[in-house]
Amino acid sequence: QVQLQESGPGLVKPSETLSLTCSVSGGSISSNYWNWIRQPPGKGLEWIAYIYYSGSTNYNPSLRSRVTISVDTSKNQFSLKLSSVTAADTAVYYCARGYGDCVDSWGQGALVTVSS
Amino acid sequence: NFMLTQPQSVSESPGKTVTIPCTRSSGSIASNYVQWHQQRPGSSPTTVIYEDNQRPSGVPDRFSGSIDSSSNSASLTISGLKTEDEADYYCQSYDSSNDEVVFGGGTKLTVL
Predict the structure, then answer these.
(1) In chain A, which end has fewer C-beta atoms inside a 10 angstrom radius, N or C?
(2) Residues A47-70: pLDDT tens digits?
(3) Positive or negative CA dihedral for A88, A92, A95, A98?
């Protein structure tokens, strides 16, 4: 059973870059694709981006200009960077596995607050 | 691009059956699998249905999924409702034309 765990700073200042890492255990990152999804307080789920183990990526068009996603197969981790953050980027950020049309195996989530 | 539309909320009594619809705005609902994710308050989502109608191990058979091409919708049906089923439910699919993951807006299920 694959498990995912997000890590990173819980507080980021406006205009700075949000950085999160997802550690994958119980399975290899060298298969499937790997997603970042966020949920603003009291709101629904928003897909941000995904990356294949090969490094191939795809992004939500609304966030594309500010998002970078990368993978480190040697550490079984993948990462998210979101630049020029504002209060609107305050959310719980989830990592999750993807295969075919499906998203499954969610992490516990990491709350990131954007505030000075 | 397509959207997945869900009702904001539904409610039903314990022991009853409830169905949550998820309507695809364009393209055939059968073109891509639909998944359903349950999110209890304060918790991360968990998948209760994948590939339209498959249950992950550990999910009770009270949960079932289906698609209906005539209404271009997917549905999650929960029978024998329990108070523990009270949660937000999100449908999810994949946009093959843009290679994007798509979520519905979520439905809050109240069991009272």
Answers:
(1) N
(2) 999 999 899 999 999 999 999 999
(3) negative
Report the residue of chain A nearest B89, measured CA to CA: A44
Pairing of strands B35-39, B46-49: antiparallel
Residue B20 has pLDDT above 90, yes or no: yes
Q: Which of A65, A74, A75, A69 is nearest to A98 (CA)?
A: A69
Q: Which residue has the tokens 């498959």?
A: B54
Size of interface A-B (CB pairs under 8 A): 63
* Nearest CB partner across the interface for A106, out of B44, B101, B102: B44
Q: Looking at residue B31, what is its pLDDT?
A: 97
Which has the closest alpha carbon to A52: A66, A81, A73? Answer: A73
Q: Which residues of A touch B35 (CB under 8 A)?
A: 101-104
Q: Whats the size of chain A, residue-wise?
A: 116
Mean pLDDT, all residues of chain A: 96
User: B70-104 pLDDT, tens per residue?
Assistant: 999 999 999 999 999 999 999 999 999 999 999 99
pLDDT of A60: 96
DSSP H helices, B2-109, are none
- Of the partner residues A37, A100, A109, the one whose CB lies closest to the CB of residue B33: A100
